Each structure stands twice: as C-alpha cells, then as structure tokens.
Amino acid sequence: MQRIGHFVERLFREREIILRSQVGVRYVPLSPGLQRGLATVAALGLVVTAWTLADHHQAWRLVDLKNSEVSRVEEAYRLAIDSLGAAVDGATETGRAEGASAILSLVAQNESLQRHLSEVEKRLAAAEMERERASSVHEQLIERLQLLDRQVRSVASKNVELGAVVTTLEQHLTDAMGERGRLAVERDRLARERNALRAEIQELERRQGTLTTTHEQTVAQLAERTQVGIEGLKRLIGRTGVDAERLLATHLAGGQGGPFVAVPPGDRVQANLVGLGSQIGRLEEMRKLLRALPVGAPLENYNLMSPFGVRRDPFTGQLAMHNGLDLSAPSRTLVHSTAGGTVTTAGWNGEFGNLVEIDHGYGLTTRYGHLSRIHVKVGQRVASHHAVGLVGTTGRSTGPHVHYEVLVDGKNLNPAKFLEAARYVSKSQ
Q1: CATH topology of domain 11-179
Q2: Cα(396)–Cα(374) distance, integer angstroms
Q3: Please, where in the chain does CATH 1.10.287 lie?
Q4: What angle do CA 415, 293, 358 make, to 5 degrees?
Q5: Which residues on adjacent β-strands are paired with residue 391?
Q6: Looking at the chain, which residues constitute the CATH 2.70.70.10 domain(s)?
Q7: What angle do CA 238, 241, 243 make, to 5 degrees?
Q8: What is the pTM of this model?
Q9: Quick one: 148 exposed, middle or buried, by C-beta within 10 A (0-12, 13-18, 19+)?
Q10: CA dist list (Å): 335 to 113, 303, 332, 372, 374
Q11: What count of Cα atoms within 13 Å lies in the side-chain half-sphere of residue 396?
C-alpha cells in the first residue's frame, strides 16, 4: 500500500499549465487534488463509454444472429414447401402410399420448423427486449456522460477563475518584487549612510578624545595658573599680617544644600571643571579680600610721629600700648578712606575726639581719630580714597595729626604693614 501511495504521489505531483499570449506568459497551477479529480472523471467516462459500447455491440450482435437464424428457418421452410410440392407431384406418379408417407414426413418437419420458428421468435423478442434495455442503459450512460461533461466544464470554469486569481497574484507578486527591489535599493542606501555615519561618529569620537585631552591640559594649566595666583595673593595679603585663608573661612562660611543629582561616573572633564571652578572662586574671593584691604595711607603727605606698639605716653611719659599710627599733617588737611566700605561711626568718641570708623568687610575695620571736621555719616557707603574729614587735634592730642588704626575681627594690627603693602597691591591690581 505504501508503494501504491508513493506511486500516486509521484504521478499526481504539483504541475503548472503554461499559457502563452501576446501580453505575456501565465502559469496556471494544477494541484494534486485537482489532477486526481480530473483523472477520476476521465477514467469513469472511459469505463462507462467502453461498457456502453460493449453492451450495445453485444445486443446488436444478438439481433444480427437472430435475424440470420430467422432467415435460415424461412429458407428451410421455403425449401420444405418446394419439396412438399415436388412430393405431391411425384405422388401422382409413384403412388398415393409413398405420397402419404412423404406428406406425413413433411408435416412432421413443418411442425418441427414451426416450433423452432416459435423459439426463434421468442429468442428474437428477448433479444429485442435486451436491445431496448441496452438502449435505455446507453441513454442513461449518455446522460451521465453529459453530467460529467457539465461537471468538467464547471471545473474548467473554476480553473479559469483560478487562472484570473493566479493572474492577480502574479501581478501582486510582480508589484511585490518591484517593491522588494526598491526596498533593496533603499536598504543599500541606508547601509551606505549608516557606514558614513559610523565613520563620522568614529572621527567625532577621535576629535572628542583629542579635544578632551586638550581640554584637560588647558584646565590643568588654568588650574595651575589659578593656584599660582591664589598663592601669590596669599603671600601679598600676608604682608599685612592678615591670614587670608582663616579670614575667608571665617567670613564666607555659610550653608549649602539642595537635592543630590549624581553625574555620570568617570566624567573627568566635569570633575576637572568643578575643581577649576572652585579654584577660580577662591581666587576671586582672594581678589575681593585684596580690594577690601585698607592699604596705603589716609593722607597724601604726612610725617610718622608715633609707630604701632609700645611707646612712652606723650602726656605721662609712662610706657603704654599704642594701637595705631600717628600721622601728622597741617590742620584741615583732607583725610581719605584707605578702602571702600560702610561708615559705622561718625562723631565724638572720648579720647579719639572726632572719630570715623569704616567697616570694609571680612572683619576689617579702620579708624580715623582727632579729626577737626567729619565729612561722612553713619551708614554711608564710601569708596577707596573718599574724603572722610579734616586733620585736627580733637580729643587727647598734642597737635594736628590723624590717629590711624587697622583692626581685624576687633584685633589691632600694625597699620605700617598695610602702608608698606600698598606698593605691591597697586602693582598686582
């Protein structure tokens, strides 16, 4: 059975009918099921036709045999009648006895022939009935063949419909192949663009690496220069006796906060920029502190009458601590502020006489005593070298001069260092 099944599968495999026309070539597929159906219909038609023809041929053959036999009987009957007539004629000559005997014999032969003829007629009637039955079967077979023909025509019509469907599918296939070609071209174009973009990205990455290296070097150089600047300003400010780091830490301390937002790990550029920004911030604060330092003298021209430190009191002659400088000048000479700031005191203050005190920020304060007149008022913002009053001798004084003090966080420092630092500060600014 497996061999038969295999043979059937090989016999009715997938086939195509090629239809050529002026517009092109069309392929009509024949499935194995359709082939088996057509083969079955054809085989059935052949069998029915062969059987019909065989049956019809047999019926007519029987009829021909019956007709031949009837003809032979009729011929024998005619011969018997002729013999009977001859016998009758001969009876007159040979005698009545022999004639009677011959007549009896002929009668017997006639009866036998009549019986045989009756049988032949019956057989002929049966053959006629068989012929009619064969004709009926033949007509039925013809009807069945016509039905099969209609079915075949229906199958052919469906095959035509299938051909139209196949044509549509072929058109769709042609369109799909065209679209596939277009997509292939587009894919190749995109592949070229992707390769070009990859090359461009690689070049950008290379350039980014170069820029990152250059940026890091530049940031490192700027950081180094900034640090050098910070150290230089620290040394310059240190000439006045002020600890710049401690002063900034004290007066710039403040709160910080905000949500934590992590930066990508390994971002050296960002880290370097943050570090550089911190250094630049410190440098700027150092510069602000330098600008706030009360460097220089409050008088254009003066004589140093008494330095900072221990001295003999001019009134008692005893040793006493002198917290400032006594700078003498003609009475009513303009006294200038040594740095910008806010006036916190402007008026009489005991032994200082008329006193002006200015807050310069960062805990720095300057005092100007023994003035004959005050030109500022409390709360007033003054710039560096602003006229704050006139030289006088008010308060505990022996003559026209200015008692000049510099304080840091309420502690007196030697103003002479600030006067000396004026040469370097003016160069750095």
Answers
A1: Helix Hairpins (1.10.287)
A2: 17
A3: 11-179
A4: 80
A5: 371
A6: 318-428
A7: 60
A8: 0.49
A9: middle
A10: 186, 14, 9, 10, 9
A11: 8
Find where tokens 């299938």 sit.
162
One-letter amino acid for residue 296 of the chain: G
Answer for the pair 15, 31: CB distance below 8 angstroms, yes or no: no
Q: Please give the CATH architecture assigned to the domain spanning 318-428.
A: Distorted Sandwich (2.70)
Token pair 């013999």 is found at 83
Tell me which residue of 179, 155, 209 sits closest to 36, measured CA to CA.
155
Other CB atoms closer than 10 Å to residue 241's CB: what's the count?
15
Check if the beta carbon of residue 115 is closer than 8 Å to that of residue 106: no
Query: How many CB atoms are located within 10 Å of the residue 371 CB?
Result: 26
DSSP state letters, 250-278: HHS---------PPPTT-HHHHHHHHHHH
Query: In angstroms, rounded to a whole number, what is the distance separating the alpha carbons of residues 162 and 157?
Result: 8
Distance CA 225, CA 279 (A): 10
Q: Is the dihedral of CA 27, 33, 38, 42 positive or negative?
A: positive
CA-to-CA distance for 134 and 305, rounded, in angstroms?
Answer: 166
Q: In this structure, what token pair is assigned to residue 254?
A: 């403040």
CA distances from 83 to 73, 89, 91, 113, 294 (A): 15, 10, 12, 14, 186
- CA dist., res. 263 & res. 409, Å (int): 40
Residue pLDDT tens, the chain, 429 long: 666 666 666 666 677 666 666 666 666 676 777 767 777 767 776 766 666 666 666 666 776 776 777 677 667 667 766 665 565 455 455 545 665 676 677 667 767 777 877 777 787 777 778 777 877 777 787 787 778 777 767 766 776 676 676 677 777 778 877 888 888 888 888 888 888 888 888 888 888 778 777 767 777 777 777 777 777 777 878 777 787 788 787 776 555 555 655 556 555 556 666 667 777 878 888 888 888 889 889 999 999 999 999 999 889 989 999 999 999 999 999 999 999 999 999 999 999 999 999 999 999 999 999 999 999 999 999 999 999 999 999 999 999 999 999 999 999 999 999 988 877 765 445
Residue showing tokens 């000049």: 404
Q: What is the Cα–Cα distance from 335 to 348, expressed in whole angstroms?
A: 16
